[in-house]
Amino acid sequence: MSDLRHDPIQRRWVIIAAERGQRPSEFKLAPEEKKGGFCPFCYGNEHTTPPEIFALRQEGARDTSGWGVRVVPNKFPALRIEGGLNRTGVGLYDRMNGIGAHEVVIESPSHTDCFPDFAADHIDRILSVYQARLNDLNGDQRFRYLLVFKNHGSIAGASLTHPHTQIIATPITPRTVAVELQSMKDHYMFKERCLVCDIIAQELDAGVRVVSATEDFVVIAPYASRFPFELFIAPRRHAHDFLTCEGGMRQGLAATLKDTFTRLRASLNDPPYNFVFHIAPSIGNQPHRPGYWQTLAYDFHWHIEIIPRLTKMAGFEWGTGFYINPTSPEEAAKYLREVEI
Amino acid sequence: MSDLRHDPIQRRWVIIAAERGQRPSEFKLAPEEKKGGFCPFCYGNEHTTPPEIFALRQEGARDTSGWGVRVVPNKFPALRIEGGLNRTGVGLYDRMNGIGAHEVVIESPSHTDCFPDFAADHIDRILSVYQARLNDLNGDQRFRYLLVFKNHGSIAGASLTHPHTQIIATPITPRTVAVELQSMKDHYMFKERCLVCDIIAQELDAGVRVVSATEDFVVIAPYASRFPFELFIAPRRHAHDFLTCEGGMRQGLAATLKDTFTRLRASLNDPPYNFVFHIAPSIGNQPHRPGYWQTLAYDFHWHIEIIPRLTKMAGFEWGTGFYINPTSPEEAAKYLREVEI
Using CB atoms, which residue from B8, B202, B276 is nearest to A195? Predict the structure, then answer.
C-alpha cells in the first residue's frame, strides 16, 4: 500500500507510491511511447482492465463491448480503496495509509476521438458520468476531496493515448484547493460577495481576457496566468457544487468545453494539456466530523482549470512557486477568440 | 517592461513577460536543441553578452577572456533593473512593474564541465560568486527576495547547454518561500526549536533517508519527497543566512555539492535537474520598512533543494498541489549512498 506523507516545511501531503513505481535503474531508460500497440480501453479488450465500476451502454453485459462511456479502477492505483487511514505520527512527521480511490473514465470507444471531435451530447454524457462517480464516492466518509482531471498527450503525463479522464478520491484536501477555499472565504468575509463572481463581473466588463461567454458559462484567460493559454471556465452564477450543474446547464457546459478545446486544437496544433475540476471538498453523505476545509465549501465557486503544456520553462517553479509566463493572457484570449474553427 | 500580477484566488504573484516570449504561432513548432552551434558563454564571445557585472579572472580586461567565473545580465530578462515598482490596483487585482534583476552566473569557461567535473575549489569559487552577487543585490531596497537556481538539461528548462546558474531578484517573496517561513516560525513559537534542526536530528537518528553527512552539512531525501531522488541539503547548525557560510564551511559545502552531483550523475545517467537555494528573504542593507516575511527571516534555516526531472507525471500537480511519487525517499537515499563513484 502507498503512504500518504505530510511535509512539515511545505505543509502538503504527498503520495509515496513506491509499489507503483520504477526501480531507480529504470529512470536511465528514456520512456518510449508505444505506437499502434495493444489498447486496454478499446472495444473487445474489456477483460484486460479491472472489472468495470460503471458504464453507459447501449447493449452488452458488464465488461463487454457496447458501452459509450466506461469507468474502471486504475490498474496501477496511487491510492487503494480497502482499509483504514491509520493516521499516525512518525517522530515530528505525519502519515496515513494510502487509502482512496483511483478510477479511469474511458471517454468513448474511439481510440482517437477527443473533446473537439465528440458531439456536445456525448460530452454531456461524459459529464454525467463524472457526476455519477462523484456522487457515489461522496458517500465514503474517509474521503475529503475528489479530484477530476485529465492528462492529454504524453508530455502532459498521459501514459495511454486512448482518451480518458481520471478521478482520485483522497483523504486530505490538496493544498491548491485549500488556498482557494481560504481566499474565497476571506473575500466573502470582507466583501460579502464571492471572489469568483466579482472576477467574472470584472472580466466581462473588461472583455480583453474573455475567450467566450454563454448564458451560463464564461471562459477566461486568468489575469495572473501562470502558463501561456491557461484557461478558467466557471459558471456565471454562483455555485459551490458541480453536482448541481444538470439538465440544460450541463448541456451548456458540454458545448462550452467542445468550443474551447476546438479553439485550443486549432490555435496550437493539438497541444498537450491538463485539465482539473476545482470543486468544493467532499462533505460526504453522512459527515460525522467535517474537516476545516469542508466548513468553507459553501463559499467556493467551482470552476475548471485548463493548462496547455507549451513551455519547458517550468522547472524551478516547483522549487519556488514563482512563474514566468511569456504570453500575456490578453494575447492568448484574443488569439483564441479570433481563431477560425 | 514585464508585469508582476497577483492571483487573488491562488494568492501568488506571476511574471507576465510577454516581450520575452513567443508569439502564439511559435508554440506550434517543436523546439529544437541547437547542437554544436555558437555559444555566447564560451571564451572569445564575451562581447556577445550584455556587459559583465562581475568576474573572477586571472587575466584580461572586462568582457574579454581570462575569467574563471563570470556574471552577466540575462539577455532576455524576466525582470528589469530600471524603474519604480508603481504598485497599483486593477479593479480587484493587484499589479506592479516587472522590476528586479535577472543575472546569469557562467560557472566556468568549459562548455561541458559541470558540478561533478569541477574541483571542489572551483565550486567554492562559484559559491563565493553567488554570495558576492547576493550581497550586492541585498543593497537594493526594492528587492524582497533573491532566488539562486539552476536548470540543467533542456527538460529542466535550460536553453543554453554551457553550465550556468541564474539569480533573480524580485520585489515580492515567492509563495513557496513564504510557506516555509511561516512553518518554521510556527514551529519555533510552538517548540522554541527550529523545525529544520529538528528534522535533521530525526533524520540522522533514523539514517534511512540520509545520503551523506559531513561535519557541517547533511544531504537527505525528504520524508515527503514530491519527486524521485529529490534532495535537501542543509547546514547541520542553525543558520538563516547563506551569506554566513564562509571559509572552511563553504569549502565543505563545495565538497558536499560535488559529491552529491557525482552520485546523481552516476546513479541516473546525468539526469536533467533543477536546484534552488532556499534562503531567508532579503532584508536589504537599509530597510526602511521590512515586509511581513522579512520579519520571519531569523527563524529560517537555509537549505538547497535539488529536483531531478525524471518523471513526466507532473502535469496535474500544477492544478492541484498534489504529488504522486513513485520512488520512496528511503530507496532513493539507499541507491545514492551505495552507488559506486
Answer: B8
